[in-house]
């Protein structure tokens, strides 16, 4: 369930960048004016829109999540410093806080993708350990069977009685007699 929630959260976080990048590409003139108002060349409108769109798609699809998260963190920090630096204006301060929250979500996406890589490596190592343990258990059981067979053969040869067998259920086939276990000791 945790992985499902992380994937949904990552897709919703990526949706912000996908929609923002697409709107920048649909309104290149407006985006150029906004970028030029911050003192940057207006020709950055298309590269910024393409970057946001592609990075959002990569984040949503889970492709290179750690690298994309780091790039989007840097991009969001730069966008916050350049475009939302008037903290006395309530709208600008709300946008800056929104960007801080997005940075936090990107940090979680970065950390969670590392966690699953670590989880899969632990799972792979554990599978190897279990295979070794299973092989050792099978070898031990084979040794026990051989020792029991040898002991039974020796007992038959010497005439000792190894196992008490009797017909317990009356079907004509003798079963080994087992001691009944007691649940309470009184």
Summarize the structure.
By secondary structure, the protein is mainly α. The chain contains five helices and two strands; from the N terminus they run αααααββ.
Secondary-structure blueprint:
Layout: H1 2-26, H2 28-37, H3 45-61, H4 65-83, H5 90-158, E1 165-166, E2 175-176
Antiparallel strand pairs: 1-2
Structural overview:
The protein is mostly helical. The protein has a domain at about 1-125. Helices cover about 75% and strands about 0% of the residues. The chain is built from five helices and two strands; from the N terminus they run αααααββ. It has helices spanning about 1-25, 30-35, 45-60, 65-85, 90-160, and strands spanning about 165, 175. It has a two-stranded antiparallel ribbon. Strand 1 (about 165) and strand 2 form a beta hairpin.
* Major sheet details: 2 strands, antiparallel
Look at the structure and give the mean pLDDT: 83
Shape: rod-shaped
Secondary-structure-derived class: mainly alpha
Residue windows where pLDDT falls under 50 for at least 5 positions: none
Strand content: under 5%
User: Largest sheet, order of strands side by side?
Assistant: 1-2
Helix content: over 70%
Number of helices: 5
Gyration radius from CA atoms, angstroms: 35 Å
Strand tally is 2
H-E string = HHHHHEE
First-residue to last-residue Cα separation: 48 Å
